[in-house]
Amino acid sequence: MAPTIETFINSFQNRLEPPVRQHLKNVYATLMMTCVSASVGVFVDMYTSFQAGFLSTILGIGLMLMLIATPDNGKNTKLRLGYLLGFGLTSGIGLGPLMEYVSVVDPSIIVTALLGTSLVFVCFSIASMLAERGSWLFLGGTLMTLLTSMSLMSLANIFMQSHFLYQSHLYLGLMLMCGFVLFDTQLIIEKRRMGSKDFVQHALELFIDFIGIFRRLVIILTQKEEQNRRRKRD
């Protein structure tokens, strides 16, 4: 076991330079803070009378755009971090109604989805870090094409109301978010090698991937639980 762990650590050290490793520590620490902020948002929506709904989505988009528009000059890190944590909070509030419904169906689904999301995210992140330099960056064009296609699919399904399209969108979206974890992780590493130290922006990108995987896993697991209950009744 010890040699395996030592080999694993050496692989990271050989693949990633000290400045890159330090940057990734900052990115993932900020990502964890944002996830905690999102958890607070879920709690606020579920257990208080504060029902923001569509307003939280608009506010979240505004905070994200403000973060992106505010330059990383080393003096406004706290301000940009505040925007990010605010975006995490509003994202959690937006998840509140879904979490409330799932807690009625089976509260354990939330825990299972969170553990599953964390496992998927960690595995794909490590795979990206240990892969050959830039080997996953080719996914960028494919991912953006798939994202555009899924947006059109979602728009079309507003009028068609097709269950097949909805399910296809759900599972393709899960695959898409996993692909973005691979792509974004390597892109962050390359940006740091080129001199970018904007860990707040990089944490935002990974948070969007994480929350996207989590939302879809929650919906998929809830659907399966509801199907199992219907079979038992029949």
Query: What structural category characterises the helix and strand content?
Result: mainly alpha
Gyration radius from CA atoms, angstroms: 19 Å
- In round numbers, the mean pLDDT is 91
Number of strands: 0
The ordered string of helix (H) and strand (E) elements is HHHHHHHH
Question: Which descriptor suits the 3D outline?
Answer: globular
List low-pLDDT spans.
none
- Helix amount, in percent? over 70%
Sheet bearing the most strands, described? none
How many helices? The count is 8
Task: Report the sheet-strand fraction.
Answer: under 5%
Spatial gap, N to C terminus = 49 Å
Describe this structure in words.
- The chain is globular and about 60 Å long.
- The protein contains eight helices and no strands.
- The protein is mainly α and 234 residues long.
- The model has no long low-confidence stretch (mean pLDDT 91).
- Helices cover 85% and strands 0% of the residues.
- The termini are far apart.
